Amino acid sequence: MSTIADRDAPAAARTVVVPVPAPIPVDLLRPRVRRGAGAAAVLRAYLSLTKPRIVELLLVTTLPAMFLARSRPSPLALTVVVLVAGSLAAGAANALNCVIDRDIDQVMRRTSRRPLPSHVVSARAALAFGLTLAAVSAVLMAVFTNWLATGLTVAAVAYYDLVYTMWLKRRTPQNTFWGGICGALPVLIGWAAVTGSLAPRAYLLFAVVFCWQMPHFYALAIKFRDDYARAGIPMLPVVASMRRVGVEVAGYAWLTVAASLALWPLGMTPLYGLVALVLGVLLLVEAHRLAARAVRGAPVAPMRLFHWSTTYLTLLFLAVAVDALIQ
User: pTM to 2 decimals?
Assistant: First the structure.
């Protein structure tokens, strides 16, 4: 057992006991596959390893960044290559994440039915699958884009799996903060693929996605706090008071909106500015609603913020794409 102190909590409830997960079993050479799993079930399992919903959200930020990177539309072939390679890289990172996290996935209700805990796919097969996707992605980027975009792609996969998943996720309540770097890198990758360099507008788009991830994932962690505690993962809602979590949710929501509005004067049209302002107000309303209830100690509805934050990011980057196309 490990004990993590929460300075914001009252004295009577200042210590949170979090079970330490068992070491990752070394079973890569002893694959176990559930008997009777048909070909269709196995194919669905491999697709599930890539976490398609996360990949989809990453592409939602990559494509508008490519549109904004130059005044005229990028060649169709380049756009397709970046989207395909980006999907493969994200899928690879997620598949390797499933291999590394298979010990904690089997004790969390939310993840216990994933392909590895349910033994539809073996750890060795999932590892080979993830590494293959990563290699193909890197080759596509190297051949059809440039070394900056390729380097950022490889770095994103390596950071997510080797730094975040294997180290930070299990050791620090700031894991969401540091993990946010990988989630925001697709914006820079898309920009670099088009221009071969980076620019202030690319960094602001990166800042939007980076800051957005805290209210988005903290809301999810509140919902599944018991799961994370059972697995010994020190997500902020597990080890800190709800008051602190609420304050951070509101604070990062403000930073997200500030970064989105800072982009407006840098060559964006009034259409983008208006959309960013309206969406920002709505995001702040939801974030402050959760924060206010958390500070009062009242029950919160975190999934409301989680789902709205997804809509916010999608619509904001849609506005970026439209703005770039009409200029």
Answer: 0.86
